[in-house]
Each structure stands twice: as C-alpha cells, then as structure tokens.
Design a protein that fits this description.
The complex is a heterodimer of chains A (792) and B (166). Chain A is α+β, with helices and mostly antiparallel strands and 792 residues long. Helices cover 29% and strands 22% of the residues of chain A. Chain B has a 5-stranded mixed sheet, with helices on one face. Chain B has 6 helices and 5 strands, in the order ββαβββααααα. The chains are: A alpha+beta (792), B alpha+beta (166).
C-alpha cells in the first residue's frame, strides 16, 4: 500500500493527509496577513423589502470600525457576474429579494468588532409582498423582480432536447400508449426538496490588494479559482494576470463553492479602498442563508407500459426553484436533469421543466446537480410501475435498458449520445454480489414475523466529465468571467534537473485527493517514484487556465490532459535517454526511476541523468531543444456516462416511523479506476449525501420567507450513528472519450442513493398500502403515511 | 481579562476580552489553527479539543473557563514527531477527505478510545456522533478508529477492505 512506484489502479495512501492530520493545513480562515481587517454583513431579515434608510453612525463611531459600505458605494462595479446570467445579483442591494440578501458591509479591526458593528447599523425597510413557494410563484401573482413579466425565467423541454419534431413524435407515442386499453399508466407528483450543501468548512475569502504591484492576491475557499480570478479581473477592469487567486485547502465543496459570490468581489473592493487585506468568513447561518442551496423541484412523473413490463413512455413535467437570482449555473441545473432524464432506458421520453424565481436564496449546483433529481423521479415512478404490474423491479429495468450492443455512442431518447455502457451486465453483477434473492427471502421472512422490512433497487446513469469545449456553443462558457471555455482539461508536467517532477493542474480539489491521484498518473507513466512527483493546484498564477473540480470531471478531463502531457515528456525523454545510452529511441524502456535499453536492464540511466541533459542544451543532439516539460489542453469528444445499480434493505418501526438501514449495496461503474481507495471514499460520501436527502435533510422556508433550518440544530445532517457500513463493488466499462478510460465518480453515490432508500421504505410499507412518502422520510412523516394508509 | 493555561504542554497567558471563545483564543492568539470552527453551535465538533483530558467543543467554551486548565489540541497529538495511532489510523484507512472535520474527529476518537479501548462498531458510531463529516459517510472513519483501537491495544489492525478484496 505504501509502495513507491504506483501502478494505476493501485491503492496509495494520500499525500494530502500528513498536513491535515497534524492540524498544519492552511484553510483560508487560518491565514493571517499583516494589517488585516475583517468584514461582516448586514443582511435583510425580510424576503422582499426596499431599503428606505441606512444609518451607520453608531457603527462608525465604534472603536476599530474602518468602513461601512452600502449599495451606492459599489454600484459602479455592476452586478455579480454569472456564467448563465438571467437575473443578476447586485453586490449590495437597495431592495432585498431574500432573507440574507446583503444590504451593507462592515470592515473592522477584528471579527468580533465587525459583528458588533453590523448589529449597530440601523436599517429601515419597506416590506413588500413576497412569494417563497415555487408552485405559487409559477402563477405569477406576485412577481419577484420588477420589470419581468413572469417568474418563469426559462423552460427546458426535451424529448429529444432541441428537436421540436422529435418532441411531437415522443408526445404522440406516449399519448397513444396511454390510450391503449392493454397498458397501465402510473403517475406521482413528488417533491425533490431543497437542500443546504453544508461543507463543514464555511466559505472564507481574503483579499489583499497590492497597490504597488497593481495586483490582487485573493485567497478563497472556492472550487473554481480561475473563474474567480477572471470575475475579479473583469469587475475591476484589470488584466486576468493581475489577479492571483489561491485556493489551496478547501474544506469540502459539493457545489456550494462552485460559484462566484458577491462577498468575494466585495472584500476585493474593500481591500483596494482601505489599502489593507480584508477577510470575511461566513457564519453557519450565513452558509445557509447566503451560500447557494440545491435541488428544489416539484414535478409529476408519469409512466405508461404494458403488463409484461415494457415501458412505452415516460413524462416528467414540473417546476424548479431558482431562488431570487441566478448565479453561476443556476438556470442550467435543471438542464442537467434533462440531460439524463431518460436514464438507462429506451422508452419515448418527454420532459418539461419550468425554472421559477422565488424570494429565497439562489439554488445552484449541489452534488449531482439536476441529475439526482431527474433520476429520483424516473426510478421512483419505474418502481411504482413495477409494483402496479406486479413485476420484480429488477426485471422491469432489465427489460427496458438501452441494450449493450448499441454502445459506444448509443443515443438516449432524450437526445444525447452516451459514451459506453453495459447496464444489464452491471445489474446482474449487483444482484449476484448483493444476494438479491436472499435479500428478498429475508424480507419475506421478516414480514411473516410482522416486521416492516423492504428492499429497494434502482439503476442510475449520470452524465459528467464535462466535457467537449463545444459546450460553449450551447451557452455554457466562462466568457462572462473573461475566460474562453468552461470545459477544457489542462495539465502541465515539468521534469526538473534532479529528476523530480512538478505537475501543475487547473482543477480545484476540495478533498478529492488530486495530489495523490495525479502523482499516480505521472508516476505510472514515467516510472518515477511517487514521492518525486509534486502536484500543484489552486494558484492561478502558477497553473494553466483550468476550470476547477465539479461535475465529476477532474480525472476524466484534467487527469487525461496530465496523462497526455506525461506522454509527451516521456517521448522526449526517450530521445534523450537514447542519446545517453547510444541506442535508438524506440528501444528505450522506462522502469525503476530511469530508462534502459530493451533487453538489457543494466544498460540504464536515471531520470536525473536524462533531465540534467535536458537542461544542458550544448550537450543535446542537433535539432533537440532544451527543457523537459509539456503542457496539454484537452477537450474530450463527449461527456462520460457512469452508471450503476444500488440496493438497500431497510426496516421501518411502524410505531415510531423510524427507518433503519439494514444494508446498503452499490455496484458502480465509473470506467477505469486510478486509486480504488479514493474512488470508494467518493462513493461512501456520495451515498451519505443521498441518504441525507432521503431521510434527514430539508431546507425549509416559512411563508414569511424565513429559513427555518439555518443552523445545524435545525438542518439535520446524517451522523455516524445514522449510517451503516456501505458494501461496494464495481464493474469496469472504460469510456472511449479519453485516453485513461476513466469516467468520474464524485457524484455517482449521490445520484444513485436517495431513491434507493425511498423505494426500500415504500417496499417495506407497501403491504399497508403506502405508495409514496415525500423526502425527507423523517419518523413523523413515515408514521403519518402509515396512519393515512391504514385509514384509507 | 487575564488567562493562563497549559496548551500542548506549554504554559501560555494573555489578556483577552471576557467573551473570547476558547477556539478563537487558540486560533487567533496562539496561532493554533488546526482547531476549526464549523458551526458555532456545538453541533459539528470541528472545534473539539481536550480540556483536562475531556473532549470539549471549544466554540462554546470561553477562554476564561479554561483558565488554569491543561488543553490539548490536534497540534499536540504528535508532539514527539510520531503520529498518534488515531492519526495513523485516519491516514492508513482513508478516514478523511477534505480534512476540515478531521482534527476534531481525531480528538473525539482519542477520547473515545481512552474511555472504551475496544469499542464495537456501534459504540464507535455513537462515540463520534457529535462530530459531523460531510465527505466520508463515516465508513472509513469507523475503520480508522478500529485500526487505532487495535494499535493501542497492541494488536495487529484488521486488514484494510482493499487489502482483503485484492
């Protein structure tokens, strides 16, 4: 496990860990700069209110308070930039659009004083009518923004996406199927509740304007340092390379740090204005109220099919909650749901999702981002269909999969080409390994004893590893941030004269272990001990323009770029080694920290010999340039489509409504695997977040727009005692769109799990007549569903 | 007001505002930033330290309340340069991802094993339920603590799952 030369696919202890387990890692809030000031915000307590007066006299009179800024002070900077900007967020507001909207910023000598001063600012509000419920907002009785005719800001329709004729054909096919008298139609309206991502590290940002150099040093807990550097540069009219964004230790992201925030821009403004570094770290309450939330859909899923299990049509129509403003990806998240809307299946599919603004905090990407929602609806209704026709859920799925012989490049009914897949193989492996028949027998035996035990089974497919740079033509680009594309992979591999290697990457990890994984890629490719490889990320002055870690894309796209860069270095090193060994380059083999001639392992040179030669151009053969490094920008031909099968066995206590997970099993397929330990860790965490949605978590706004779940006392995260050990295995279906054959695994666990739990609970209670329970399945709700079913 | 205490074996003293939280005293005054703030309400446990040998959430304790106490933080766990078995367990069993909850989690695990040297899986889970982790799903944290428990008992830790399956 601690071997010095890694092979791809091997377990290597993480190189990130020593600093973290010693408490020596430096997160943003750990950084202290000379003369540093602290910011705090005055935030609206109302969901919709015009600010009529701000009196900061008392605050400014306090010792150690340097400044109070309001909307008028920052108007010239414009609104917050966003990649998909439909309704932009002002940096500071004159009219608040959600509880937590920032009205004023205080800068003071220390964080206690800043918070005291924030409380001393007097703000008078004219409270306006508000709408926090998305279904109500969709009626347009109360408009969230002046000058807009409707709260519906965009509608995503697919079946196939972007093909009106195809949509008409799909709709007709579904209608025909429903009209047949030998078919069964099931329909459920279900909520996919809002969630608060809740990285345990609160967001933190520290701006240091260096007037002498005309440069911002900006430390931020962000998943997207390059986009942030671009946004700051564009906002302040600076060249891109005058902003150095540093995101070196990020304590969890899950999408909530995949955004540009007004606070990040505002601390830059204050630092420039005051000539001193300014830091702001959110409180947990702010993390709930003012950092993006996720999910928030209400939709009706309808499925029609024959009694022998052939699905003839699937429809999903609903409303998606955008919150008050659109930030980075907000309006695009439901589109990601459309992307995977037909799942692994071949039935005609029609989807229509209305994206609606409300007087609540913005929603955006939360782990899975659109895909968990879409798969939830599909797999829940498929389960209901299976139950209605009394067929085993595994058999119904098997019958409707896109067959393996259509890959690579199978076209999903919703209109996207999928890379590789073999769904039935994965299902079979899952059923065998989990012991599906035994699980069912165990369930039936428990039922015979009067216990409420259920088995849930689901399939999932996700789309990730974005992706082709051509996505800019669909409107996904970072051009608003001054960057050309969101979706390239970037890798730089540089061999130093002593034979050590530095790899510089543009992704921005937040716990995924890139320093280890990338070192494995290079170590494997160059036969260099992993200890000699150093991986640098999260510094926009050092790394190539990379776009960060999200959408399970880093290994597939940036990892592949690094692989290709290592390839080029290896090719040149072979020429240099050939020169040193007086052999032909094609006879050079790399092994054990050096190169040798094929067939004579003792006829060898070390990497330090090769690299030393590279930096002494006078010794090089004619026509060979000095240096030993390569930089690659990689755009894959397609996104990747991981898939899998998850099973859960649960027991419900009918007296209390408590749900206990007896077993959780996942059979995932993310293509080739670089470090199985890290991949399994990603799946564990992903499942925990899906289980969190299924059983515990919900962001709740009351009718007055207050977020009732703005602390960890009210927003329930799963604790260690709520979860079981997870049983995992995998099948391996490499992708054909990148040279490593890897697909991505960051979100799979989340995409596969919530509906697996709900299906299991519904299975447990089906004998009582329960057909559906809304997430989160907390005891009271489960108990109530049992009572309702009994009553009915 | 004036406070003095022993932190990781060193005597420290300072003048602080009476309302200064222990976690802020450690982080801001002593620059011991390994102890983290995650929620300010004692729920997440990222701020867990030992005060007189007991695991305490330092975000809801005043520095003044720790006056005269022996405080140990994550920085004091490998003071002699050698990893504490719990730290080693977290590394060996991939018990951390982003690492933000890790110092508090390690401090709680050390206290748990001091109280119960051979905990069952269930006892481990209940022992750390005051510490939230958003990355790992706790699976490998449980394994890390099992590893550390075995080490502390002088036993050979059970093999890692990946060693057992490959």
């Amino acid at each position: 496990m601690t071997s010095t030369t890694s092979v791809l696919g091997g377990v290597v202890r993480r190189r990130e860990d020593p600093a973290l387990i010693h408490g020596r890692a430096r997160y943003v809030d750990d950084i202290k700069l000379a003369n540093m000031a602290h910011a705090a915000f005055v935030r609206s307590p109302y969901p919709h209110a015009k600010v009529t007066e701000i009196d900061a006299t008392a605050a400014l009179a306090m010792d150690g308070v340097y400044a109070v800024y309001t909307a008028a002070d920052v108007q010239h900077l414009g609104p917050l930039l966003a990649q998909v900007a439909v309704v932009s967020r002002p940096l500071l507001v004159e009219t608040a659009k959600h509880v937590g909207d920032a009205v004023a910023m205080i800068v003071a000598a220390d964080r206690y004083t800043a918070q005291d001063a924030a409380e001393a600012v007097f703000v008078d509000y004219d409270v306006l009518p508000s709408v926090t419920d998305m279904v109500k907002a969709a009626t347009d009785e109360i408009l969230v923004h002046d000058g807009m005719e409707s709260n519906t800001i965009i509608t995503w329709e697919g079946g196939p996406f972007g093909d009106d004729e195809g949509i008409a054909t799909s709709k007709a096919a579904i209608a025909d199927a429903k009209a047949r008298d030998d078919t069964v139609t099931v329909s459920l309206t279900m909520k996919n509740q809002r969630l608060i991502p809740t990285a345990i590290e609160p967001r933190s940002v520290l701006a240091d304007w260096n007037g002498g150099y005309g440069r911002f040093d900006l430390y931020s807990s962000t998943q997207i340092p390059h986009a942030l550097a671009g946004a700051v540069a564009k906002t302040f009219g600076l060249p891109y390379n005058s902003v150095r964004c540093l995101a070196q230790e990020v304590g969890g992201g899950f999408g909530c740090k995949l955004n540009i925030y007004n606070d990040e821009i505002l601390v830059c403004f204050a630092s420039q204005k005051l000539g001193r570094p300014v830091k702001w770290t959110e409180t947990r309450r702010e993390a709930a109220n003012s950092t993006i939330q996720g999910r928030g859909w209400v939709a009706t899923a309808t499925m029609v099919g024959t009694r022998d299990g052939e699905v003839l049509g699937y429809e999903l129509t609903g409303v998606c909650d955008m919150g008050a403003y659109t930030q980075n990806f907000t309006a695009a998240i439901p589109f990601l749901g459309v992307f995977v809307g037909s799942g692994q299946y071949k039935m005609p599919t029609y989807m229509k999702l209305d994206c609606v603004v409300t007087h609540t905090m913005t929603t955006d990407a939360y782990r899975g981002a659109g895909r968990p929602e879409a798969i939830y609806y599909l797999e829940r209704i498929l389960d209901a269909f299976a139950r209605e026709i009394d067929m085993d859920p595994a058999d119904v799925r098997r019958k409707n999969y896109v067959p393996a012989d259509q890959f690579p490049g199978a076209m999903s009914p919703i209109g996207f080409a999928m890379d590789t897949g073999d769904y039935e193989m994965n299902l079979d492996a899952a059923l065998a390994k989990a012991g599906y028949d035994d699980m069912k027998a165990e369930r039936d035996a428990a039922r015979a004893e009067g216990r409420h035990v259920g088995v849930g089974l689901t399939s999932y497919v996700e789309v990730c590893g974005f992706g082709p740079s051509a996505l800019v033509d669909l409107g996904f680009s970072w051009s608003e941030y001054g960057l050309p594309s969101a979706f390239n992979g970037n890798g730089v591999v540089r061999v130093h004269p002593d034979g050590t290697v530095t790899c510089v990457i543009g992704t921005g990890p937040s716990g995924q272990g890139h320093q280890t994984t990338w070192a494995q890629i290079i170590s494997h490719h160059l036969s260099i001990p992993i200890e000699k490889v150093r991986v640098i990320h999260g510094d926009t002055h050092e790394s190539p323009v990379g776009i960060g870690s999200f959408g399970s894309r880093s290994a597939a796209v940036d990892g592949s770029a690094t692989w290709m860069a290592a390839d080029r270095v290896r090719e040149k090193a072979a020429t240099l080694a050939a020169h040193l060994l007086e052999a032909a380059a094609e006879d050079i083999r790399f092994a054990e920290d050096g190169a040798h001639v094929a067939g004579s392992p003792y006829h060898k040179v070390g990497w330090s010999d090769i690299a030393t030669l590279a930096y002494q151009p006078h010794r090089l053969p004619e026509g060979i340039e000095g240096g030993l490094e390569a930089a690659v920008v990689f755009s894959p031909a397609n996104a990747t489509w991981p898939f899998g099968t998850h099973l859960a066995m649960v027991e419900v206590d009918a007296d209390t409504g408590d749900v206990e997970i007896l077993r959780y099993f996942g059979m995932d397929d993310c293509g080739n695997v670089i470090n199985p330990m890290i991949v399994d860790g990603q799946v564990h965490g992903g499942i925990a977040q899906g289980v969190g949605q299924a059983l515990f978590e919900e962001a709740v706004y009351d009718e007055d727009g207050n977020l009732l779940t703005a602390s960890l006392m009210d927003y329930l995260l799963p604790t260690a005692s709520d979860l079981p050990l997870f049983e995992l295995d995998r099948t391996v279906t490499p992708t054909d769109v990148n040279p490593m054959g890897v697909k991505g695994i960051g979100e799979a666990g989340t995409i596969g799990s919530a509906q697996t739990i709900v299906n299991a609970v519904v299975d447990a209670l089906a004998p009582l007549g329960v057909k559906h329970i809304e997430m989160p399945l907390r005891p009271k709700r489960v108990w109530q569903a049992i009572q309702d079913a009994k009553g009915a | 007001m004036h406070v003095s205490m022993s932190v990781n074996g060193a005597e420290v003293q300072a003048d602080v505002e009476p309302r200064t939280l222990l976690v802020h005293f450690l982080r801001e005054d002593l620059a011991l930033t390994g102890t983290h703030v995650g929620c300010e309400t004692s729920y997440c446990g990222a701020c867990t330290v030992h005060v007189d040998g007991v695991a305490v959430k330092s975000c809801t304790m005043l520095a003044a309340q720790a006056d005269g106490a022996q405080v140990t933080t994550i920085e004091g766990m490998a003071a002699d340069g050698e990893l504490h078995p719990v730290q080693e367990g977290f590394w060996e069993r991939h018990g951390l991802q982003c690492g933000y909850c890790t110092p508090g989690m390690i401090m709680s695990a050390v206290a748990l094993l001091a109280e119960n040297p051979d905990p069952s899986e269930d006892e481990i889970r209940h022992g750390i339920e005051g510490n939230l982790c958003r990355c790992t799903g706790y699976h490998n944290i449980v394994r890390a603590i099992e590893y550390a428990g075995a080490k502390l008992r002088g036993e050979t830790p059970p093999p890692a799952e990946w060693e057992a399956t490959t």
